[in-house]
Amino acid sequence: MTAGGFSSSEDARDYGRGLLVGRGVRLRPLAEDDLPHLDRWWRETEWQPLQQPTVRPRPDGTAADQIRAWSANTDPGAVGLSVETLEDPQLVGHVTLYGASLPQRTGTLGIILGPEHTGHGYGSDAVRVLLRYAFQEMNLHRVELSVWAFNTDARRAYERCGFVLEGRRREAVFHAGRYHDDVVMGILASDWSATEPS
Questions:
Q1: Which of 42, 106, 132, 171 has its CA 20 to 30 A from that of 96?
Q2: Which run of H or of E encompasses 146?
Q3: Which residues pair with 184 in a beta bridge?
Q4: 127 phi and psi angles, rounded to 5 deg
Q5: Helix (H) and strand (E) counts for the chain?
Q6: Coil, helix or strand for 63?
Q7: Integer Cα distance of 45 and 20 in angstroms
């Protein structure tokens, strides 16, 4: 591929082959078989304080419709994809970008990993792949996210992917009898392209 784009149809195919592949994961469309796992991970009360504003036990299947909607991939300003490992393919999570529209070209990132799959680098790899997709295919200018201030593991992972602290929503979430800050982080296309290998 040349600096100005593709120089051949083979360049275009190579780009397509590698677009959704990282070092250890690949992003792929949601499969029906993914839903029971994603639903279970979304409902695990141990992990809800890290990803949801309220710990609220829910019955089986309640997240399936929402995850299907996130993953329909019919809206040009949103994409939702399952995350699977490259070696011995298994589902490890789900990533989504939503809310992108003109003229801002800003999308919001969300990710869920199975608790048994955290700490292996899958989340950071999936975020890097999704950022490549966001900036090279969706033509986004900016990707943002919010994370509770006490979720230090996630904050460090986002920083490793190039996100920077942009601000705080003070005392925006209530857990364990007290209020906690919501940290806003973002990455610009120019930030991303400065750190990505060519």
A1: 171
A2: strand 142-148
A3: 146, 167
A4: -65, -45
A5: 7, 7
A6: coil
A7: 31
Between β-strands 25-28 and 79-85, what pairing exists: parallel, antiparallel or unpaired? antiparallel
Q: Retrieve residue 198's tokens.
A: 């060519």
Task: Tell me the CA distances in angstroms from 175 to 12, 111, 135, 196, one per residue in order.
Answer: 48, 20, 35, 37
Residue 47: per-residue pLDDT? 83
pTM above 0.70, yes or no: yes
Nearest alpha-carbon partner for 29 in 65, 70, 61, 62: 70
H or E stretch at 125: helix 122-136
d(CA 135, CA 139) in angstroms, rounded, equals 5
Separation between Cα atoms, residue 96 and residue 51, nearest integer Å: 14
CA dihedral sign, ordered 16, 93, 126, 73: positive
Which backbone phi and psi does 32 adopt, to 5 degrees? -55, -35
Predicted confidence (pLDDT) per residue in 50-64, tens digit: 787 788 877 787 889
> What is the chain's Cα-based Rg?
17
